[in-house]
UniProtKB/TrEMBL annotation:
GO BP term (any one): nuclear-transcribed mRNA catabolic process, nonsense-mediated decay
Annotated InterPro entries: ARM-type_fold (IPR016024), MIF4G-like_typ-3 (IPR003890), Nmd2/UPF2 (IPR039762), Upf2/Nmd2_C (IPR007193)
SMART domains in UniProt: MIF4G
Localization terms from the record: Cytoplasm
Top-level division of the source organism's lineage: Eukaryota
Coiled coil: 275-305
Gene Ontology CC annotations of this record: cytoplasm; exon-exon junction complex
Protein name: Regulator of nonsense transcripts 2
Chain residue ranges for the region called Disordered: 411-437, 1035-1060
Amino acid sequence: MESTSEVPDDCCQVADEAEKEALALKSFKETIAEIESHLAHKAQLRSRLHTTVQNRPEESYFTRLDSSIKKNTAFVRKLKNFTEAQKESILKDINTLNLTKYISEVANAIVEAKLKMTDIASILQVCVVLHEKYADFSSQILEAWQKVLSLKKDEKVSNPSKMRVDVRFYADLISCGVLTPKEGLPLLGSFLTNLIHGDKEEHNSATIILAFCKFCGEDYAGLVSQKLLNDAERFKMTVPTSNWLPPDKRQNVRNLLREYYSSLCKHLIQDHKELQNFERQNRRILQTKGELSNERKEKQEVLNQSFAKLLNMTQQFADVLAEELPELRQDLSPRDEECSVLELCENMSDQARETLNELLWENEEGRQFYENLPNLSVYLPNLVPKATMEAPPLPDPAEQMIDIEKEAKEIEEGEQAKEEGDEDIKPAELEDEKDDADVPVSLQSNKVLLDSFLTTLSACVNREMIDSAAIEFSTNLNTKHNRKKLVRALFTVQRTRLDLLPFYSRLVATLHPYIPEVATDLCNFLRQDFKYHVRKKDQINIETKVKIFGMYPRADTLQCFKQLLLNFAHHYIEMTCHLLETCGRFLLHQPDSHQRTKVYLDQMMRKKSMLASDSRYLTMIENAYYQVVPVDSSARSSHIKIRPPLHQYIRHLLYVELGNKGSTNKILKQLRKLNWKDPEVASYAIRCLTSAWKVKFPNIRTLAGVVAELTLYQEFVGHRIVDAVLEDIRWSLEFPISKFNQRRVSMAKYLAELYNYRMVESSVVFKVLYTCITFAVSYDRTVESELDQPDNLMRLRLVLTILDTCGVFFSSGLAKKRLDCYLVYLQYYHLFKRSLPIWTEDNPFPVAIDFGIKDMLQSLRPKLKPYKTLQEAADAVENLEKELMNKLSLAMPELHMDVVMADDTLACIEEEDDRCVVTAPRKALCPEDDDFMAALDRMVAENIHEAYSRGKEASKAPAVDIAIPWQVKASLKKPSDGSDKNFLGDSIGGELGGALAVAEASSACAAVASSPPSASQDNPTVNFFLMTRKGNKPQFKNLALPSDSELAQNLRNREERKNA
């Protein structure tokens, strides 16, 4: 039986496929027939016009026609409003009217007419008839078209919809023979060329080009759609093509269209990247803030619509031109946060539901308790769910999920105003019980039953008992008065009976579909009581009220969570912990509250780290957090590292003790005591000294100081640490993972501090700085670098960190010049990043980067004027490179020749017997090398001789000539014999005849001497002045020595040698 049932199904399937194949073949043949008829019709029109133009009617024929102005003017107006329905009447008017004097108006009316694509065939027939009768029609209509299609370079089309029809109309006029190719093709070619070349970026005129390809591509470019080519290959048939134009001209048009298509593909890829970047930003905003603004949502819709429109246009072009669609790469970058709950909700398979249940509930029993509620309609068939009495609807998550920091700021600003109104906030007031006298007699028995029910309600400590209580209340006690009493009893639960709260919540949830007043009134009381206790900060017994918040809308519960976090102290901590223990796990794993709950939990843990409270609060916070976000104990234990005691001690010294007051010398002494000859100990110590990101940021300077001091005793430590730091910075540039950003900043700071302690040369620091702005950086807007994304500004932060730390020391010498050059390139990189299209009004460029650059320039180069535009920075870079190349060419004129020779003399690889042998470049001998070596030898010999001479002279006591002070000159008197001689020279106004000699025996005295050449023979002495210093004032004393003394003789000999 099974085999007989399968055969008919297979036969039916084969019959269906054969029928589809026959229908496809029939459709393809019909399409081929349409193309052949279209080409034949065009050829027939051209031959017809070629024949009839030579046999146009004579002037006597037109004299018999109507030439009245009224009818001709009406005919022209009719042409301006031409439609396909008017074709017959217009053709009739052409045969009865004499349009010889109105042919220019007729041509202008046809060109200015607002036609549709369906009207082209009819208006072409009209133009053919006019061309057959009037010889001036073709020239007049060509002149009219020249006014419309004369498009200048980079000129935009004002009305694309009309131009789309006009281009097809004009092209059909040429292909039909109304306009000859010699007359019409130049205008059409110039129009298409200017239109395509001026629209390669925005592609606003893509519809015009697409219409030309669809309706005129066969005649002008020999285009055949991809679908027709596939069908022709499939059915082994040929597609007819037009041979009206020569092959070279058709190839030119085809190349022009393909060039436009390639630019359209680039535009599509660029828009796709922009859309993916915007979606990635939206995901990050959702992870951090929990919502998207309306502006970003609207922009997302606009981007999606524009991309879908551009993609549809590209697909149509690809089909018409028989080209391949560009590959649109999907964004495979890892998401910053895990959105497991949201991803599961999109595709809720059985396995996904099981995973979601595991996240929501601790065990299966808990899930059954909260989800499987008894159906009261089974016990009371007449009890119908009240759909109209439901609790208030869930607010829009987009309106509820707002930025936490913004809310906190607003609440802090309005806190004072709210505190003034604290007197108006009162605790929830319940109606007092009425006296028995006020209760009707008919309700006395009901009151007794209710009191008994409320008394036994506190004994319901399991699921079966509370479900029975719900059935009993809905069956026997469901009155308005009893509902109010039930709400009062549930609300005033004792503080010591926390175990009853889950069961009371189940009771309210069971009654809610049929008796919603209980849940609504209870939530209102709880909301009011919560506000009262939040304002009255001296209350502490609030935890009993929070447990029933599961009946709240999730948005209201999160609002309460946020209010508690804003004043995270004392009893607010207890309230927050009880709230999380009750419903935190449920909130975290619901799609509409997942993001916001996760942000609030992170904020709570940050506040906990800054909390200066006792250990009881810290333990409560940790227990509540890990109850919401449980940690797998097996996975946690598998990741625990067991370190030797020595390794733990090294980590304790560097990561705990470092930074404490007076601990630097202690840590250095302990590190010096390590066995640095042991490779394992040395390797681990160096690795800890390299891990600057594990040290508190202010202590990185101290760590660099410890390394510098330790290097004085263990020299290899410094080299290995510097190498490791440079390698880590390079690795962070090659793998730009966002979670390592703090590590990257710490290592950049560490490198700068090592330079401050003279562990690194300035050239190494500048290499790192240039690497940050050049490595894998794309300055082409169309090419996006994977290692330097447009929205990734971490490299600028690294540069600012380095320059803020050690930039002040680049203030003189070669380092100053290097920094001046680098600042030019840095400003260009910053302005290029700032000018990328990813930064918009909705997503502005971070002001912290702008202010950081500004502050850095103001600190390092106060007089430097920053560049304001990208063009200014580009011009500065170009001028700087030209200046450097000019200096380099002057210093080394043969640089270009050497570069070329170096390319020619690179090491080559030769293969010998299946072996690769690398041959080194050979040195080319030239006479310039001999001259250079000879000059170098002379320079070295001169330097050696000069150094030897300086060393020999340095051993002699220096003889210093000191000018005669003016006080001494003024105190000298003229000779008593009336001559013009004095003690300072041969004559007044003559040259100085004497000299001063100073012997610096000590820094406290000096001798100044004057030797008159005409000394008296009776008193053969030479007068000297002895200069001494008393305090800061010099004192002079006259000293007469015999002329034959050694000092006077030496002075005379020295003067003779100078004069000689």
